[in-house]
Amino acid sequence: MVNSVDVAAGPAVVVRDLHVRRAGAPVLHGLSLDVPRGRIVGLLGPSGCGKTTLMRSLVGVQVVDSGTIEVLGLPAGSAALRARVAYVTQQVSVYDDLTVRQNLAYFRRVIGAPASDVDSVIERTDLGSVEGRLAGSLSGGQRGRVSLAAALLGAPEVLVLDEPTVGLDPVLRVELWELFHRLAEAGATLLVSSHVMDEAKRCDRLLLMRDGALLADDTVPGVLEATGTDDVETAFLRLIERGVPDLHPETGSEVA
Amino acid sequence: MTLSRTFATTGRVLTQIRHDPRTIGLLLVVPSLLIGLVAWIFTDTDLFADIGPAMIALFPFIVMFLVTSIATLRERRNGTLERLFSMPLGKGDFILGYALAFGLLAIFQTAIAVSFAVWVCGLEIEGTIWLLFAVAVADALLGTALGLLASAFARSEFQVVQFLPLLVFPQILLGGIFIPRDQLPEALEAISEWLPLSFAIDALRAVADDSKDAEWIAAKLLVIGAWIIGSIVLGSITLRRRTP
To answer: Residue B176: which domain range?
Structure first.
């Protein structure tokens, strides 16, 4: 159940000293971070900085060299987590030769969610008008929403979303962020990656990444204050110039 | 692994194929067309009676191998496999789900190919037609199972296509179509004794000329069945939830 934010239970995600290589090249070298429960945490950084690798590690589809990752108190990738943690890959991962509804019906059965979830996620992602169409015939933005809708099945407690708003028109983008906030209010934890810095303002907290390491782990006002800037893009540049990270992780004891 | 997730996967794969009528058409008709071509080539000789049964073993086997291995590879390429592996889908659910879906198609395909060979091309079957059908289905299922195994190993379309000559062609060359297996050099004959396609070709020939009893054929069927199960199990083990 995802009804109340259980601060006492500790952060939703705890990463300690994570080392990961992809295709032989080190991507993450000694990364440590927390993602507090019931919040939207933005994972920002340039393409290639290790966002996707971190997300793949959290959902247990990435071979990890060393370090620990706990999600909801269990080792990342545990069988017990697979229905509680949802992952939306950056590439739209749906079946183009199935209709929207058929896609969702299949993923629902895999997750083991109630049958009524299909209708509810179609409604929440505003796909009702295209539910009978093949996913391959939809626009890029619509396909992305099918991929997102699949992640909402079964009311997951943690959502790991890799660039979910890329290529969407501004109206849709706002609608999706409203949806993310509703999910967080209902108690879900969201880790949302983006390389668009202006999306940062919509997050509760920010993780700024560069070259596989954290430049900042702070609230949005915190990052802006620490760097004396008024937009995240400039703050990012300041942090790179300064070479001193702005790390103010929220501890588990701190009550929201 | 759970039955409901396996069947959900089977249903999903079949629904995908249903949306692609041309693939269904090709899948069902291509082996029969090829058998028809072979029959035509040998129309002025009496060779078709000899190699016809082997063709029933060959074409469905190759077609099912290719189609299955590419279908599962496509799943890896479009990111849905990664998504499924972040969900509570077992590796066995995935492989067995595919095996059941394509196995069902293989049954239809084989039924058409066998009927076409016997009633249109005039392939003479001395033994029981049902045994012929049973062996042919097992053989097409074998193609499906080996295709799944190949795609569990392969990392790209190029690799999958290479697995066809690597896994399938030697079985064809050593299966006794070109020269009888007992005339092969000793080492090759020994190898051919172990290749699953040899069992299928031997069994189909035995049904065609009614030279062996049903028990002998059942024994061959058992070996083919063991290869099918072995390939599916090995494929499930080979598949990796976590990738580098």
So the answer is: 3-238
